[in-house]
Structures are given as C-alpha cells and as structure tokens.
C-alpha cells in the first residue's frame, strides 16, 4: 500500500541536504560553542554562520535572531516577557490563534491580571481589521498578537497592514509566523513588527529547534536562567546540529520557493477541482485564496462519519488532519472552526489537507478514491 502524507502543516519530511548537514555537524563539530578552545570556536562559528544565513532571508541583523527549542517556546518567551518586563497590560489577539499563544495568554491573565481582548473573526476566518482598529483606541500599554497564516485553515493576515496600524497606535506587534516562515517572503525591513517566531520542522528541518526574531532594543528579558548563551536571553547549550540543520532547511526553502510554491499551488487547485467533481456540495472552510499549502474542507457527509473519517483514511495509508496536530484523533471540534462555522456544520466532518513539494497528483487521486469509499 502506498502511504500518502498530506499533513504538512503538522510537520514536514526533512530534506536530504539537511540530514547531510546535521550528520556532518554531529560527527565532526561536537564542541560546545561556549568553550574557548578550537572545538568550541568551531561550533560557535557554525552557530553564528547559521544565524547570519537565517537573518539574511528576512533582511534583519543576525543579533535579532534568538535560537529556541521550538515555536512554542519562542511564543511563550515573547508573550511572557512583554508582560513581565515591558509592563504590557493588555493583549489583543484572536480566538483562532494556536494554543501556544492562547494558553500562554490565559496563564498570563491569571498570573498578572492582564486584559485580553479578542478581535472579531469573520465567517471566512479572516481577522476583522475594522474591529482591531476600534479595539486599539484605548490608552493602556498594549501588544497585538495575531498569527500570519492560520495552521488549520490557511487564512492569511496582511502583516504589513496590521504592522502599520500597530505603529500608528504605538502598540507592540507579535505574530506567530510558524506556518509561513520558509514558505513565503517576509521582509522585516518593510514590515513594522516587533516579534515573529519560527519552527524548523514546519519547513523541512529538524524538530526541537526554532527561533524568535526580536527587534533591536526590544527590552525583552530571559525566562530561563543559567548560562550566558544567546546574549543571556536564552540560557542552555545551543543545539548546534539542529540550528545548522534549520539554517540549511531555510536556505533550501528560499532557493526553491518559486518552483515549489507554483507546484504546490497547482496540486491544491487539482484537489479542489477533484473534490468539486466528486462531492459537488463540498465547502472550503476559510478563504478561497488561502495559503497555498493548506486546504480545509467541509465534506458533505453525514455527522456519523465525523468520528471515524481520519481512522478510515489512515487504514488506507492516508495521513490528513481534522484540526491542529494536538487535536488529531480526538473528536473535540477545532477551536478555529468553532469561530467560523455554525453548530450544525461543526458536527460534520471537516478535513485539513496540507501539502509539500513531495506530494504528487497520484497522492490526491488516492485521497479522492479513499473519500469516495467512505
Ligand atoms: N504556532 C503554529 C501556528 C503552529 O502551527 C505550531 C505547530 O503546530 C506551533 C506554533 C508550535 O510549534 P512547535 O511545534 O515548534 O512548538
């Protein structure tokens, strides 16, 4: 049985070049970057070259990149420090953020009593910018935290537009860019934004490594204490092989961006066409022109199919998702779709299908055949 992986918003396969790079670093460059001898200096040089290489893609300085263990850690750190150290009293966010943001904010609310305001979400999953502007007309020290590309529906936030609005109202702006880094151009010279975050395993790099972009002179303080790594902002011996792998993955993502984006975009359109032929009542959850590698669809199946659909597809070797990864396999409705769909539609089966350049039309044909047999 051919296995089909269409769950690339959860995680991605590691590129061969990345595995080669990491193997080389693990084999030959095992020094601790904090050591002053040649082994340490060698590891330090790999670290700093990786930082420089990553920074270049976003037109920022290498010092503005802080390595972390994942996207979740980067989000936690930024949000916690803006409240604890920058004395932000109010955070404007949305109910469709990833739990790495939503749960962090709830914990900050109970610890520091910050005010959280949720900006309205339109039925197509887009953020209501008019509502955001209305919310911004308060005097309190505020941070806006809105994700770039939604991991469940692929709806896109116009970072530049929101950045300009935040600047106009003199508030800080953080965006969870985990789903867009490596998959679209992000020019941080042009976008007025204070903080973004990344996770290597979403762009064909290794798991367990990510980074935060923190604009110069941000005033953020660490949440971990220990060594002086990462300019004292993130203690702990750096995972040199992971970081080198992440830099290599990002390099290849941007080298191949044009061709891979066009290829994936065509695959997604092919899937939409096939779904519309086989299941004419299918509905796209989110905007029709959502991000090119994510498609979330409401299938015209009866409610009783909802619980077993993933299992059924899995039996046929097909991996897709019902919501974000941490919810896959549970029948709890997605908190993102809950903001967009009627209670009636929420009970019906929705699927998130997410692509990479490793997918083929054959994968899609197999998915369609499997869905027809349900
Ligand atoms: N933010 C978004 C939008 C995500 O999709 C994910 C991963 O599912 C995360 C954050 C968490 O990233 P990590 O797995 O690196 O902790």
Automatic annotation (TrEMBL):
Keyword field contains Iron-sulfur: yes
GO MF term set: cysteine desulfurase activity; iron-sulfur cluster binding; metal ion binding
Reaction catalyzed: (sulfur carrier)-H + L-cysteine = (sulfur carrier)-SH + L-alanine
Source organism of this protein record: Flavobacterium urumqiense
Pfam families assigned to the protein according to its UniProt record, in alphabetical order: Aminotran_5
EC supergroup of this enzyme: transferase
Similarity comment: family membership: Belongs to the class-V pyridoxal-phosphate-dependent aminotransferase family. NifS/IscS subfamily.
Domain Aminotransferase class V: 4-367
Protein name: cysteine desulfurase
Gene3D superfamilies linked: 1.10.260.50, Aspartate Aminotransferase, domain 1, Type I PLP-dependent aspartate aminotransferase-like (Major domain)
InterPro entries: Aminotrans_V_dom, Aminotrans_V_PyrdxlP_BS, Cysteine_dSase, PyrdxlP-dep_Trfase, PyrdxlP-dep_Trfase_major, PyrdxlP-dep_Trfase_small
Cofactor(s) required, per the database record: pyridoxal 5'-phosphate
Cited SUPFAM superfamilies: PLP-dependent transferases
EC number: 2.8.1.7
DNA-binding among keywords: no
Domain of life: Bacteria
UniProt entry keywords in alphabetical sequence: Iron, Iron-sulfur, Metal-binding, Pyridoxal phosphate, Transferase
